[in-house]
Amino acid sequence: MRADVLRAHHRAIARRRSEQDIQSEFGYRVRALRVERDFSQEELAPLAGMHWSALGHIEAGRRTASLQVISGLAVALDVAPSALLP
User: Fold this and answer.
1) Separation CA 74–CA 12 (nearest Å)
2) What is the CATH number that goes with domain 3-83?
3) How would you class 24 by CB atoms within 10 Å of its CB: exposed for 0-12, middle for 13-18, buried for 19 or more?
4) pTM for this structure?
5) Which residue ranges does the record assign to the HTH cro/C1-type domain (predicted)?
6) CA 45, CA 8: separation in Å to the nearest integer?
7) 30-57: pLDDT as tens digits
8) CA atoms of 83 and 79, how far apart (whole Å)
9) In sequence order, which ranges of 1-66 are alpha helices (DSSP H)?
10) Which of the 8 DSSP states describes residue 79?
11) For residues 25 and 58, is the Cβ–Cβ distance under 8 A?
């Protein structure tokens, strides 16, 4: 494989890992606050305007949260949106 192609491939992998790290950290923070406030996913999700399965995917780092979702979660958890961001 050509060196320039290999470098581009490694950069793409690093970028994907970085995005996954951000999603995972965001999900961890949401889960930690949810548990701290004694909410189940089924209880918190409707307060944030979403389905509980979507919340589960976000907490697991498998789904990206839109600004609308971040805002809804922040309101439901009674925190500033910035508290959810890594």
Assistant:
1) 31
2) 1.10.260.40
3) middle
4) 0.79
5) 30-84
6) 39
7) 999 999 999 999 999 999 999 999 999 9
8) 6
9) 3-36, 41-48, 52-59
10) S
11) no
Q: Is 79 left (phi over 0), alpha (psi -120 to 50) or beta?
A: beta
Return d(Cα 10, Cα 76) in angstroms, integer: 39
Torsion of CA 72, 75, 81, 85, to 10 degrees: -70
Number of other CB atoms surrounding residue 4 within 10 Å: 8
Q: Judge whether residue 17 has pLDDT over 80.
A: no
Domain range annotation of the chain: 3-83
